[in-house]
Amino acid sequence: MTDILMPALSPTMEEGTLAKWLVKKGDTVAAGDVIAEIETDKATMEVEAVDEGVVEEILVEAGTEGVKVNAPIARLSGGAETKAPEPKPAETSAPEPAASKAEAKTEAPVKAEPAPAKTAPAKTAPAKTGSGERIFASPLARRIAEQKGLDLSAIAGSGPHGRIIERDVKDAKPGAKPAATAAAAPTERRGETRPVQSLQQMGIPEGSYDLIPLDGMRKTVARRMTDSFRDVPHFPLTIDLEIDRLLEARGRINKMLEKDGVKVSVNDIILKACAVALKRVPEANASYSPEGIALHHHADIAMAVAVEGGLITPIIRKCETKGLAQIAQETKDLAERARTRKLKPEEFQGGTFSVSNLGMFGIKSFGSIINEPQGAILSVGAGTKQPVVRGDQLAIATVMSVTMTCDHRVVDGATGARWLEAFKALIEEPLAMMV
Amino acid sequence: MDFDVIIVGAGPGGYVAAIRASQLGLKTAIVEREALGGVCLNWGCIPTKALLKSGEVYEQLHHLADYGLAADKPRFDFAKVIERSRKVAGQLNSGVGFLMRKHKIEVIEGTARLEKGTPAPKVIIAQKRGGERTLQAKHVILATGARARTLPQIGLEPDGDRVWSYREAMVPKAAPKSLIVIGSGAIGIEFASFYRALGAEVMVVEALSRILPVEDEEVSTAARKAFERRGLKFRIGATVKKLTKSKTGVAVEIETGGKTETLEAERAIVAVGIVGNVEDLGLEALGVKIEKTHVVTDAHGATGVPGLYAIGDVAGPPWLAHKASHEGVHCVEHIAGQPPKNLNAPIPGCTYANPQIASVGLTEAAAKAAGRKVKVGRFAFRANGKAIAAGETEGFVKTLFDAETGALVGAHMIGAEVTEMIQGYALAMTLEATEAELHATVFPHPTMSEAMHESALDAYGLVLHA
User: Fold this and answer.
1) C-alpha distance from A204 to closest chain B C-alpha (Å)
2) Distance between A183 CA and the closest CA of chain B, angstroms
3) How large is the average pLDDT for residues B405-418?
4) What is the pLDDT of residues B210-229, one digit of tens each?
5) Using a CB-CB distance cutoff of 8 angstroms, which residues of chain A are in contact with residue B404?
6) Where in chain A is the domain with CATH 2.40.50.100?
7) Could you give the CA distance from residue A88 to residue B292 in angstroms, rounded to a whole number?
8) Residue of chain A with shortest Cα separation from B341
9) Which of B373, B402, B432, B460 to mutate: most A Cβ within 10 Å?
10) CATH homologous superfamily for A101-211?
């Protein structure tokens, strides 16, 4: 006996409407047969049988709304005597329950309650069901993809009817993250930003300006930022942090490191705190891909560095494993080489989370654009002395605003809030990073 | 604008391109100076197959005892053999005419030349029925084909009597008693095989170190042995110094490794390659790039001159009808704005001698020269049940797989009816099959094609019947 479960047709799908049954009790189905149609708010999709057997019972009637993903919808007898995989709660990757369905569905994430009702277990990846769309690829392309560790679902095929053929995978970069390729494939299509009217058409006469030709970096920044801002459903979360203890700790740390000639900046401590917070709230260290949500094993923190003619984001790899002295040395070296454009591609490509700091320019707060395929970016404002209320008393504290821009496909409002909570705790009591 | 597309030349490249253009809704005309179907259908592929069939059947008559049969004194009527071949060509020629009418393609009989025009060169046709016609189309496709290469300075020039090209060799008045074939490519070997089957003393002269030089070396070696068993003689690595004609026949002076020798025979066939038909078309004035008698094109047949394309033999090797048809279809679809279906299609090659030779993809030497590590599989027909039953145990199937990816890199076959089997491998290559799919495919028993399965298995040490 095999249960047919409600499939997740997209990584974010929680429930759907069982629109139509294409089989009835007593019908024999073979693996691959279309047995039902499911509607979500986005699309109607067909459900294929994974196993063969006879439909013993229809458990959910056609037309039922709000059928939870992984709920049994029908029962097959005969065929392989295996049970369809049980809906498992996510394991180590998501130790804490995420937002409830109600919370996730609310499009405005900026809710006051930091701890929403904790009901549903977090889902890590779409349930592997027969509803997964078939990927058309030649046997040779499949094998090369397997050998190189490429994700075929992220590759656009150039063969007949979009079939993936050898040519499409031969030169694909091995080890490319699914999300990265996923982002890259459509980018080719959308890389061309919308047709821009000439300045003349927009009323700016020729000769009234100097034209700086677009160099590679400017084109890349323009394309990536346009794509991200348009295609990633982003939202900001802002929080104030008191950094007096951090500044004090920094003073002591630097005294200790004086003899080594190393100087730890506030930003270095922020990077470290980000990394530790990402380990504590791993759902925020995530990338969206059509296959599922990638939860990264390490916090590879990209830091935005302004350089002549643009910006670049060198990466502190496995930042959570590194001490402040090492981070300080690395950031100094990376920033210097970024300014002289001597970074190697592997030093600025990838990364799982970004930090952009404009505090030194006195910017109070701002929201950055997500650096795809990362799930979030933190914008750090200036630390300034401000009046704060402690109990019912006014006091003075050095306050710094940070804004986390989240990709709503992977980091929901409550997840972002929990991450900021963890981050705030680390910044306001730097000793906590030791724990 | 008179037409969307004008195609110059109605061989297997041109007429197929015309049909595809018509299917795509393009108003199409085709210009032909001689006969619909081109060399392939009238003077090449098809009529030679008719001749070779006669030769093969006749040869079989001498082996009837092997099958428990007997017939008294097999004979042939050479005039009827030739007549049959011409009838076959004639039937197919009128078939192309029918196809042109069916697809509403205007056939213009005459000789075309091109002049500057927009958006494509103008086509000026000196019509067979008289008068000149000037036409402007959006696209012009050159499919003028090729002809036999001649070397008059050393006497390698057909005279229609004692020295033949494929054309004269197709319709002689009588079968020669002795024959020298110069060149051991597919054309030379097929005529050698045919005339040998009818009993002629045939000597094949090849300048390179082996016969059928484009084939895999193992196939060349096996082919030579098989032909020698049938009484064909070879001079390999032999340079022709001079061909002279006498009253009774020809004398061909050759040099092999410093030694000279004079071969004598009744007739000689010159089969030393082909040259593209690029003359008198006005191509130079248009600025069309021509290299070694062939028009230079990009992957879609574009010549660089706006609106002008070239396909088939005139656009370069391999000089094969099916390659021309493929290019014709591809070019027309490109013109119609469709994406390419198979830019790197593997082109099989077939030689219809007895035994037959067929191949697709890279030879072992070429694969190695390209730096590919290959796994090689072989299977001989002598271990194949159907081949034994049919008394056709000559030959083998050789397969090459990329050692890393398992991609089928090349396949080489020699034996009975292998030309009918090679498309199995061509399909596998086009679908980018690996050894796994070939191993998993069920081949019908008993067939000679089982050797194709076994060869693929053998490459991975899994051969079943050896």
Assistant:
1) 38
2) 24
3) 97
4) 999 999 999 999 999 999 99
5) 147
6) 2-77
7) 69
8) A160
9) B432
10) E3-binding domain (4.10.320.10)
In chain A, which residues have their Cβ closer than 8 Å to the Cβ of B436? 139, 143
Best mutation target, B330, B405, B431, B439, to test chain A (most A CBs within 10 A): B405
Q: What ipTM was assigned to the predicted interfaces of this complex?
A: 0.79
Q: Please tell me the distance in Å from B367's CA to the nearest CA on chain A.
A: 17
Per-residue pLDDT at A132: 59
CATH of domain A2-77: 2.40.50.100
Three state DSSP letters for chain B: CCEEEEEECCCCCHHHHHHHHHHCCCCEEEEECCCCCHHHHHHCHHHHHHHHHHHHHHHHHCCHHHHCCCCCCCCCCHHHHHHHHHHHHHHHHHHHHHHHHHCCCEEEEEEEEEECCCCCCEEEEEECCCCEEEECEEEEEECCCEEECCEHHHCECCCCCCEECHHHHHCCCCCCCEEEEECCCHHHHHHHHHHHHCCCEEEEEECCCCCCCCCCHHHHHHHHHHHHHCCCEEEECEEEEEEEECCCCEEEEEEECCEEEEEEECEEEECCCEEECCCCCCHHHHCCCEECCEECCCCCCECCCCCEEECHHHHCCCCCHHHHHHHHHHHHHHHCCCCCCCCCCCCCEEECCCCEEEEEECCHHHHHHCCCCEEEEEEEHHHCHHHHHHCCCCCEEEEEEECCCCEEEEEEEEECCHHHCHHHHHHHHHCCCEHHHHHHCCCCCCCCCHHHHHHHHHCCCCCCCC
Top-confidence residue, B8 or A132: B8
Q: How far B361 CA sits from the closest chain A CA (Å)?
A: 15
Tell me if B407 and A166 make a contact (CB, 8 A cut-off). Answer: yes
By C-alpha distance, the chain A residue nearest B406 is A140
- pLDDT band per the 50, 70, 90 thresholds, residue A9: low
Contact call for residues B410 and B363 (beta carbons, < 8 A): yes
- Give chain B positions within 8 Å (CB) of A147: 404-405
In which band, very low, low, confident or very high, does the pLDDT at A345 lie, cut at 50, 70 and 90? confident
Least Cα distance to B111 among B87, B144, B88 occurs for B144
A250-272 pLDDT, tens digit each: 999 999 999 988 999 999 999 99
Write out the residue limits of the CATH 4.10.320.10 domain(s) in chain A.
Answer: 101-211
Contact B432 A160 (CB under 8 A): no
What are the residues of chain A with a beta carbon less than 8 Å away from any beta carbon of chain B?
138-141, 143-144, 147, 160, 165-167
Tell me the C-alpha distance between A240 and A202, whole Å: 41
Active site residue A161: no
Q: Which CATH code of 3.40.50.720, 3.40.50.20, 3.30.559.10, 3.10.180.10 fits the domain covering A221-434?
A: 3.30.559.10
Residue A160: list chain B partners with CB under 8 A. 341-342
* Residue A175 confidence (pLDDT) above 70: no
Q: Where in chain A is the domain with CATH 3.30.559.10?
A: 221-434
User: Which H or E run includes A249?
Assistant: helix A244-257
Nearest CA in chain A to B433: A139
Q: Which residue has the tokens 């694909």?
A: A172
